[in-house]
Each structure stands twice: as structure tokens, then as C-alpha cells.
């Protein structure tokens, strides 16, 4: 049996801020059968993840493209790979049967043909399927590992989180509060600021768009200094955080979204502060800390079942909504984890 498989790709490489016109939907004919011994699995995608870092794969060049296979560059016309989940349609691997739920790396498409090693069976554990792309997926893992493993928080420490209404920042702030820290976040609207304080339990929050001097703003919110900064934006906010860090402060660099669309915009923190305050700054990927996966899942599932942690999701419907969902990330449209629903569960 053959079907027409629609998928999202780019027309040309993206430079600067992405626009919906950079993308197009193409179609290819896919046979829903597997050749024996191919080690392939055909998955009908149900949900796909949309994340800011993916823009670096869509550029003609980014230094990140050399780092890992999953960050390699994508050429116009090619399928765009992302975390996703779906149901098995056909498999040459005896461990996967038709209609098994699987999660892993798929394409922004209706169907994905993947190798058995790139997906795993999914046990929903009583949670919505979408949670397994957000709070129980790479976003949650990045928040948990970056905060607990890199920053080594202690109760009572002062924590600053940028892009605090995003898929990762919103979780970092909640983990920090549950750990007994004082937490301030920044976001790009008054509505998001209210959400951080009223729904997620941040001690305070501010709208960075209303601040003309980030260093003075952080001094106002952290008069006694910052112990931990979880960085999702880079550029001037990282500089301001370093200027306000306490001695032996820790910075986990998870993302630099403010630099992704502007090649001339780079953070230039005071290295004298870094040296004399003995500040630790470390970049990381969630995949660096898979040894923590069981601990992360157990802890986070307990928090969810006991309603100690809130989930922020921004889900759009249909393959055709992927370009607008992606572009919206760079306008700050999303609240929480941005996911696209491709098909019914």
C-alpha cells in the first residue's frame, strides 16, 4: 500500500529571523511496507516538537552543525528532523509491532521512516501523550539536569531564569521553588509575568521589554546577588547576570535564542567578574546527562501526580501549522512547550 506523505521543508536556508515564507509543504509517495532486513520502522506521526534550536540546522552554516548528528545541517527540500511520537504502521524489527506507541526522532511529516534505534516504545504512564515531548521529554530533562547537575542548588539560594515562560525555563523555576530556592524569572509580556507569579509560584518576575538596563534591573530584583542563573537567551541578559552574580555563582547555558537570528549579537560578559568571583559557566545538552533519566522521570512523575508542578503547553493542529508555530517562537508567541498535533491519537 502506498500513501502520499506530506512533509514540511525549507525553500532556502534561513538567515536572520525566520518567516513562514521560508517553508513549504511538499509530498512524496511512501510505501507502508518494509523490506525484510532493512531495520526500518514506519511511524504515523501524532505529535512533533517545535524548538528554537532547530533554526541552527536550517542555516547554511552554524558551528552547532558540526557538534552532533542530530544538529547537522538540513538542505532545502529535505525533511526536518525533530523529537516526536506516533504509532507504528509497519516494522522489520520484531520488538516493534503495528500500533505500538513510540517516541524518538521523526520528521515534520505525516509519516516518518526511521531506524529501530532512533525510537523507543512509549508507556504513557497515565499522562497525556504530549507530556512526553515536553515535561517528560527533552525539555524536562534539560531543565532537571541543567539545574540540579550543573548548578548544584542549595536551599535558600537565589535563582534567576530567563525565558521563564518557555518550555524549559518554566520547569527550571518550578524545580527551584520545590527545592527551596528564591526564584525570579523574566519574560516578554505582562501576561507572562503574571502567570509566572500567580500560576507557577515564582517569587517575582519582570518584563524584560520594559527594562532599558538589564544590569540595573537584576540589581533591583537581586540586591544580594544571584547564586544561579539558568540561561536560555544569551547576549545582554547573560552579561547582566554575570555582573550581578555572587562569588562561586553557577550559570547553566541551555540556549541563546536572542543570538540565533542575529549573527552580530554576542554575549560579552566581564571575564574579570568570571575570574575573581570564580563563576562557573557551562553549556550543556540534555543528552549529556542520560544517566539521570530514571531519577528525572521518577521525581517529575511524582510531582505531576501530586500536583506540585504545572505544565505549560502550546499545541497547534495540523501539519500546515508547523511554519507559523516555529516562527512564533522567535516572536515570543508561545507559552510553554510548543507542539504540533499531526494526527488523532
Automatic annotation (TrEMBL):
Q: Indicate whether Oxidoreductase appears among the record's keywords.
A: yes
Read off the SUPFAM superfamilies from this record: GroES-like, NAD(P)-binding Rossmann-fold domains
Query: Per UniProt, which keywords does this protein have?
Result: Oxidoreductase
Q: Where is the Enoyl reductase (ER) domain?
A: 16-340
- Which Pfam families has this protein been placed in? ADH_N_2, ADH_zinc_N
User: SMART domains in the record, alphabetically?
Assistant: PKS_ER
Q: Where are the transmembrane segments?
A: none
UniProt-listed InterPro entries: ADH-like_C, ADH_N_2, ER, GroES-like_sf, MDR_fam, NAD(P)-bd_dom_sf
Q: Which domain of life is it from?
A: Eukaryota
What's the name of the protein? Enoyl reductase (ER) domain-containing protein
What is the protein's species of origin?
Turnera subulata
| High-level lineage | Eukaryota, Viridiplantae, Streptophyta, Embryophyta, Tracheophyta
